[in-house]
Automatic annotation (TrEMBL):
UniProt cross-references to Pfam families, sorted A to Z: GFO_IDH_MocA, GFO_IDH_MocA_C2
Residue ranges annotated for the Gfo/Idh/MocA-like oxidoreductase N-terminal domain, each copy included: 41-163
Domain Gfo/Idh/MocA-like oxidoreductase bacterial type C-terminal: start-end pairs: 204-270, 360-430
Protein's name in the database: Putative dehydrogenase
InterPro entries in alphabetical order: Gfo/Idh/MocA-like_OxRdtase_N, Gfo/Idh/MocA_oxidrdct_glycsds, Gfo/Idh/MocA_OxRdtase_bact_C, NAD(P)-bd_dom_sf, TAT_signal
Domain of life: Bacteria
One Gene Ontology molecular-function label: nucleotide binding
Amino acid sequence: MKNENQVSRREFIKNSAGVAVALSIPTFIPASAFGANDRVQVAVLGINGRGQNHISGFSNLKNVDVACLCDPDNEVLQTRAKEFNEKAGKKVKTEQDLRKVIDDKSIDVISIAMPNHWHALATIWSCQAGKDVYVEKPGSHNFHEGRKMIEATKKYNRIVQHGVQLRSSEALQEAVKHLRDGLIGNVYMARGLVYKWRPDIGNKGTEPVPAGLNYDLWTGPAEMRPFSKNYVHYNWHWNWNYGNGDIGNQGIHETDMCMWGLGVDTFPEKITSAGGKFLWDDCQETPELLSSTYIYPKEKKIIEFEVRPWMTNREDGVDIGNIFYGSEGYMVVKGYDFYETFLGRDRKPGPTRKAGGDHYKNFIDAVVSRDASKLNGPVETAHLSSGLAHLGNIAYRTGRALTFDPKTEKFVNDKEANALLTRKYRAPYMMPETV
């Protein structure tokens, strides 16, 4: 007999009184639902790491209530709830099972900060249940999931924001306008840089599941493996079963900035990647160092992306950011809110600016108005920026240069590479074939 944690969301809904039709008839929220005296009710899924920023980001908005916190680790859940209750002066609802949260009719928005392997499925389930979604980067754990996210967003008419907050930076919006207006001439190349301090993570082996952790829910659609502190709670990033390495972690901000700045809204046709593990004899599966090249022959543009893990120089002061090269100069983007330009052969300083923005507010404004066109990081960015990282990882894992067809979103005559565009899902946490 199945226990509750082995029941799929579909079965869970069918067995719950009053909500049997939730999958087929989403609870669409009319524009009039949010009036001057109404507040958007947000639930945050995954609150050990990045989810803490989701909690504070939504809590800072005057027309939003963080109504529910959800995490499969009850120790983390109760710790965050205690912190929240003391700060807010009111009690927040807690829940370990995301399915119950998604099907709670009092919740308007699902904010997802779970590990990468959960992002797409939680987004699709939320759309099916009539919720709007803020999903942390990368939007998908594998390439195929990104297209499914777009399909679900459109089918259920939801507002879905991808957590690439640099798109809400006033400075970087201005920077992209400069690129479009020809400040540095014909922009032909972008570099994405992730030079981030990554230490030896060792190898902690396996052990019994800690009390309070629902490990079945934590694992979700991924392959079930014996519990290890090697990946619960942070170092899952470096295991292919759950994460995507640093190009699919910090690097999504930079892959997104590369594509945004170059003005490309499709995938490259030629991809090469090389790298590996050169420093640590630890349990990390993803490469410590990775250099990827993405070529757009029709557009005559190229993206270079580099991950470095340890002691390194900076490039024009950049360790996390981007550099754009044009026929008349170049532009440096540092972090999420600063750019500077250098013009001509003598690299004369040009326009520069530092200014941030509020990605959470941008999302809530779109939710309240029911206007997805207001989104700075719409669901398409989740597929593009995450997809670019996935393509680079696939080139690394196959060990050869790859040819990709952006129209079919398949590799050309390469069965091994195409198999890596998706994954095998674990029942009952299955990716729907038709959303």
